[in-house]
Amino acid sequence: MNQFTVTRAHLKLALDKKNWDLLDKLLEIDPTHINDKSLYTDTWGEWWGLLCQAASKGYTDGVRILLKHGADREQTTWGDALYQTPLELAHGRPKIIALLEDPARPTYTRKSEPDLAKLQETPEFQAINRQGEIRDRTGLVFPTDEQKS
Fold first, then answer.
1. Per-residue pLDDT reduced to its tens digit, 23-41
2. For position 12, which CATH number holds?
3. Domain range holding 89?
Protein backbone atom coordinates (compact mmCIF):
# COMPACT_ATOMS: atom_id res chain seq x y z
CA MET A 1 0.00 0.00 0.00
CA ASN A 2 1.41 3.39 -0.96
CA GLN A 3 1.58 5.99 1.77
CA PHE A 4 0.11 9.35 0.82
CA THR A 5 2.76 12.10 0.64
CA VAL A 6 1.63 15.59 1.62
CA THR A 7 3.30 18.26 -0.50
CA ARG A 8 3.42 22.05 -0.42
CA ALA A 9 0.93 22.14 -3.28
CA HIS A 10 -1.61 20.04 -1.37
CA LEU A 11 -1.52 22.48 1.54
CA LYS A 12 -1.54 25.62 -0.58
CA LEU A 13 -4.39 24.46 -2.79
CA ALA A 14 -6.48 23.28 0.21
CA LEU A 15 -6.09 26.75 1.75
CA ASP A 16 -6.75 28.56 -1.53
CA LYS A 17 -9.95 26.55 -2.10
CA LYS A 18 -10.98 27.04 1.56
CA ASN A 19 -11.28 23.27 1.92
CA TRP A 20 -10.82 23.23 5.70
CA ASP A 21 -11.50 19.53 6.19
CA LEU A 22 -8.87 18.67 3.59
CA LEU A 23 -6.35 21.09 5.12
CA ASP A 24 -6.92 19.56 8.56
CA LYS A 25 -6.51 16.01 7.25
CA LEU A 26 -3.36 16.86 5.29
CA LEU A 27 -1.73 18.49 8.32
CA GLU A 28 -2.76 15.55 10.49
CA ILE A 29 -0.88 13.25 8.10
CA ASP A 30 2.21 15.45 7.78
CA PRO A 31 2.71 19.06 8.98
CA THR A 32 6.26 19.32 7.56
CA HIS A 33 5.52 22.29 5.27
CA ILE A 34 3.19 24.18 7.62
CA ASN A 35 5.69 27.02 8.13
CA ASP A 36 7.06 27.25 4.59
CA LYS A 37 7.35 30.99 3.91
CA SER A 38 7.69 30.66 0.14
CA LEU A 39 4.15 29.66 -0.86
CA TYR A 40 2.72 33.10 -1.66
CA THR A 41 4.28 36.13 -3.30
CA ASP A 42 3.42 39.50 -4.75
CA THR A 43 5.03 41.38 -7.62
CA TRP A 44 7.25 43.36 -5.23
CA GLY A 45 9.42 40.52 -3.94
CA GLU A 46 7.59 39.78 -0.70
CA TRP A 47 6.88 36.18 0.32
CA TRP A 48 4.71 34.59 3.02
CA GLY A 49 3.31 31.28 4.22
CA LEU A 50 0.00 29.66 5.03
CA LEU A 51 -0.72 31.36 8.37
CA CYS A 52 0.00 34.84 7.00
CA GLN A 53 -2.24 34.12 4.00
CA ALA A 54 -5.10 32.82 6.16
CA ALA A 55 -4.85 35.77 8.56
CA SER A 56 -4.71 38.38 5.79
CA LYS A 57 -7.63 36.84 3.88
CA GLY A 58 -9.81 36.53 6.99
CA TYR A 59 -10.00 32.73 6.91
CA THR A 60 -10.91 32.07 10.55
CA ASP A 61 -11.17 28.29 10.14
CA GLY A 62 -7.91 28.26 8.18
CA VAL A 63 -6.13 30.08 11.02
CA ARG A 64 -7.75 27.73 13.56
CA ILE A 65 -6.56 24.61 11.70
CA LEU A 66 -3.04 25.93 11.14
CA LEU A 67 -2.67 26.83 14.83
CA LYS A 68 -4.13 23.45 15.84
CA HIS A 69 -1.30 21.78 13.95
CA GLY A 70 1.46 24.02 15.31
CA ALA A 71 1.89 26.89 12.84
CA ASP A 72 4.40 29.48 14.04
CA ARG A 73 2.39 32.47 15.27
CA GLU A 74 5.51 34.67 15.18
CA GLN A 75 6.52 33.86 11.61
CA THR A 76 6.76 36.93 9.45
CA THR A 77 6.58 37.66 5.77
CA TRP A 78 10.02 38.05 4.18
CA GLY A 79 11.58 39.67 1.15
CA ASP A 80 11.96 43.26 0.01
CA ALA A 81 9.24 44.85 2.16
CA LEU A 82 8.66 45.47 5.86
CA TYR A 83 8.07 42.16 7.56
CA GLN A 84 4.60 41.56 8.99
CA THR A 85 3.33 38.92 11.42
CA PRO A 86 0.01 37.09 11.10
CA LEU A 87 -1.30 39.24 13.97
CA GLU A 88 -0.48 42.44 12.05
CA LEU A 89 -2.06 41.01 8.90
CA ALA A 90 -5.26 40.17 10.82
CA HIS A 91 -5.95 43.86 11.54
CA GLY A 92 -9.68 44.45 11.91
CA ARG A 93 -10.53 40.74 12.25
CA PRO A 94 -11.30 40.20 15.97
CA LYS A 95 -11.94 36.43 15.73
CA ILE A 96 -8.58 35.83 14.07
CA ILE A 97 -6.78 38.18 16.45
CA ALA A 98 -8.29 36.27 19.40
CA LEU A 99 -7.04 32.96 17.97
CA LEU A 100 -3.55 34.35 17.38
CA GLU A 101 -3.31 35.91 20.85
CA ASP A 102 -4.53 32.82 22.72
CA PRO A 103 -1.48 30.69 23.64
CA ALA A 104 -3.57 27.49 23.61
CA ARG A 105 -3.94 25.48 20.45
CA PRO A 106 -7.49 25.72 19.11
CA THR A 107 -9.58 22.72 18.13
CA TYR A 108 -11.22 21.92 14.84
CA THR A 109 -13.52 18.99 14.08
CA ARG A 110 -13.89 17.91 10.48
CA LYS A 111 -17.38 17.82 9.05
CA SER A 112 -16.39 15.35 6.33
CA GLU A 113 -13.64 12.89 5.52
CA PRO A 114 -11.84 14.09 2.37
CA ASP A 115 -10.94 11.47 -0.22
CA LEU A 116 -7.23 11.91 -0.88
CA ALA A 117 -7.42 9.63 -3.91
CA LYS A 118 -9.40 12.34 -5.72
CA LEU A 119 -6.58 14.90 -5.52
CA GLN A 120 -5.20 15.49 -8.98
CA GLU A 121 -1.85 16.86 -10.04
CA THR A 122 -2.49 19.90 -12.21
CA PRO A 123 0.25 21.96 -13.89
CA GLU A 124 -0.12 24.49 -11.04
CA PHE A 125 0.33 21.70 -8.49
CA GLN A 126 3.51 20.51 -10.21
CA ALA A 127 4.90 24.07 -10.47
CA ILE A 128 4.41 24.71 -6.75
CA ASN A 129 6.20 21.50 -5.83
CA ARG A 130 9.06 22.12 -8.29
CA GLN A 131 9.46 25.60 -6.80
CA GLY A 132 9.71 24.06 -3.32
CA GLU A 133 12.22 21.45 -4.45
CA ILE A 134 14.44 24.15 -5.97
CA ARG A 135 14.21 26.19 -2.75
CA ASP A 136 15.18 23.14 -0.70
CA ARG A 137 18.18 22.41 -2.94
CA THR A 138 19.46 25.91 -3.63
CA GLY A 139 17.79 28.39 -1.28
CA LEU A 140 16.52 30.35 -4.30
CA VAL A 141 12.87 31.29 -4.58
CA PHE A 142 11.05 32.67 -7.60
CA PRO A 143 7.39 32.96 -8.60
CA THR A 144 5.86 30.30 -10.80
CA ASP A 145 3.99 31.34 -13.93
CA GLU A 146 0.73 30.73 -12.04
CA GLN A 147 1.80 33.18 -9.32
CA LYS A 148 2.69 35.89 -11.84
CA SER A 149 -0.82 36.15 -13.22
1. 999 999 999 999 999 889 8
2. 1.25.40.20
3. 8-125
